[in-house]
Design goal:
Helix content is 32%, strand content 19%. By secondary structure, it is an alpha/beta fold. A hairpin with a 2-residue loop joins β23 and β24. α7 crosses α8, α8 packs parallel to α9 and α12 crosses α13.
């Protein structure tokens, strides 16, 4: 805390609010002064001179929230305003998760990788091969949020090994390690894997250890969508922990959950496993406050059907025998309830009316069986179709999110157009707009499972520490002025599965690097985010 300095004139002065600093400390009354892109003072500053003044009476002043898990890699090129993030208080996003980054990639295999990432590729022309070229493209769009990029294992493997289901050869593994080193030199903060997605799914633990050794040596982190989040959940957690212990890498388990009803309750087994390793190693996980997940519709298919990438899958669907085998696999899955699977985004205008419908509803509209509807949609949309799938137990979600090792990530796939846009808005998971405010509404105000300061620490200071992010994530003098001002009695999510495009309420101001992106609850149009390159930020 500092006293008034007569010599300074603040660009912005926030007075009469209660600060929650992001370090886990309880709220305290203080004013916050901003000069340029930094927090210049925190203390008794009411009588200081300022060009702009905000009265935060009855409000909390907190660090801007850090979304540790998004898929905004290409979406930010198309929608740099990122209103869905800004409107819920997010000022920094991590991209390249689940093994999905659009780079590095060779020209020869760019088309196949683009097809793999079709649901997040946003129709943008790919003009890059190197990681640095992609980051340059992001910088040129001037995003409204700060961006922390990861290298996706799918891209690494596609570049070097391709989409074959086999172990990497020694020379291929060496090439991947060298390529990963180059990406980290160019600004990547670490590696992500998507061990249910080809070609990442075809890697064994030896390959993962060899790659994460590179990340550990450079003090980056490893984020993993594990090999299973359902029947083999415990084995998958064990593999992730073993990978981290063998390589020494900091581990982030993505969207930890127990999927499908027969597996509900397994988090009571996995959380103690993680806790024990966390006593000796840097291990955390993240989650979002919803019982539905979202992914490619093709993830309902057996893994063998996905071997070789999207083009191979589409060829299999043309073969009557293989198509029948895939259909039978869907129909024999007793955990699939077609009323629990919603068709989310599609690529064609023709099938846009199916967005937001359950598979059962879509099947009636198409006059097909539900299993055939899934295959028809994948084929018709060239695999560019996503789903929202209700697979989790609310008690499990509450237990995971309330855990001290849990951080918060939306897992949002796309960025919808801003409110004033005339572009059509695809159906999205409500987590796209509601993740952070829903945690406050549900776990702080309603169930009182968490305190305000514990929750904000999960979203800010703890996340910044995990990432190795310096001078962000706290309300502290000298830190970048990424800030959110909100009403603790009003903050809440409004987005629902029926109406997913509603922004949060109760959030008044959001600053990114000292400039308001949200003012009095309305977007300003300012795009003052930065692409944060590892080693330089």
């Amino acid at each position: 805390m500092v006293e008034l300095s007569e010599s300074r004139i603040f660009d912005w002065l926030i007075v009469n609010g209660r600060v929650i600093d992001g370090a886990g400390n309880p709220p305290f009354f203080a004013d916050v002064g901003i000069i340029g892109d930094k927090i210049a003072a925190v203390g008794q500053l009411f009588h200081a001179q300022a060009k702009n003044r905000i009265d935060a009476m009855g409000k909390f002043i907190a660090p801007g929230f850090i979304d540790i898990h998004t898929h905004f890699d290409i979406a930010l090129l198309a929608q740099p305003e990122a209103y869905c993030s800004i409107s819920q208080g997010v000022t920094t996003v991590v991209i390249g998760n689940c093994g999905h980054s659009p780079t590095p990639i060779t020209k020869e295999r760019q088309g196949e990788l683009r097809q793999l990432l079709s649901v997040i590729e946003a129709g943008i022309e790919w003009r890059w091969e190197r990681f640095s070229d992609f980051l340059d493209s992001l910088e040129s769009t001037r995003p409204s949020v700060n961006v922390i990029p990861l290298v996706g294992h799918c891209a690494l493997r596609a570049s070097v090994v391709g989409f074959e289901n086999r172990p990497a050869k020694d020379d291929e593994l060496k090439t991947m390690r060298n390529l990963l080193e180059e990406c980290m030199d160019e600004g990547a903060w670490g590696l992500s894997s998507g061990l249910i997605y080809p070609p990442s799914a075809f890697a064994n633990i030896d390959e993962l250890v060899a790659l994460t050794e590179v990340v550990a040596k450079r003090c980056g982190f490893y984020s993993t969508h594990m090999r299973s989040e359902s029947d083999a959940l415990v084995a998958a957690v064990t593999e992730a922990l073993q990978t981290a212990l063998q390589s020494g890498v900091k581990l982030q388990i993505s969207h930890h959950k127990a999927s499908r009803k027969p597996n509900w309750g397994k988090v009571s087994v996995t959380l103690p496993l993680i806790e024990r390793v966390a006593l000796q190693h840097d291990v955390t996980f993240d989650a979002y406050p919803y019982t539905a997940g979202s992914s490619y519709l093709a993830q309902l298919l057996p893994l063998w059907a996905l071997e070789g990438g999207s083009s191979a899958l589409l060829e299999r669907l043309k073969d009557p025998s293989q198509r029948q085998q895939i259909k039978e696999a869907l129909e024999s899955d007793e955990t699939l309830d077609w009323n629990d699977v919603i068709v989310a985004s599609v690529a064609s205008d023709e099938y846009r009316p199916l967005q937001g419908k359950t598979v059962n509803e879509a099947a009636k509209m198409l006059n097909l069986l539900p299993s055939e509807t899934v295959l028809h949609l994948i084929e018709h949309e060239r695999n560019a179709v996503t789903m929202v799938w209700f697979v989790m137990d609310e008690g499990d979600v509450e237990q995971v999110l309330s855990h001290p090792l849990c951080l918060v990530g939306s897992d949002a796939l796309t960025i919808p157009p801003p409110p004033n846009s005339t572009e059509p808005k695809p159906y999205v998971h409500p987590r796209t707009y509601g993740t952070f405010p829903k945690v406050f509404r549900w776990l702080v105000r309603e169930t009182k499972k968490l305190s305000w300061h514990e929750t904000i620490a999960k979203m800010t200071g703890k996340t910044a520490h995990k990432l190795g992010l310096k001078n962000r994530g706290l309300v502290r003098e000298g830190y970048f002025a990424d800030l959110v001002i909100f009403d603790p009695e009003e903050i809440a999510d409004q987005a629902s599965y029926k109406n997913p495009h509603l922004p949060a309420k109760g959030i008044d101001w959001v600053f990114v690097n000292g400039i308001p992106a949200l003012a009095k609850g309305q977007p300003t149009g300012e795009r003052n985010g930065r692409v944060l390159r590892f080693g330089n930020d």
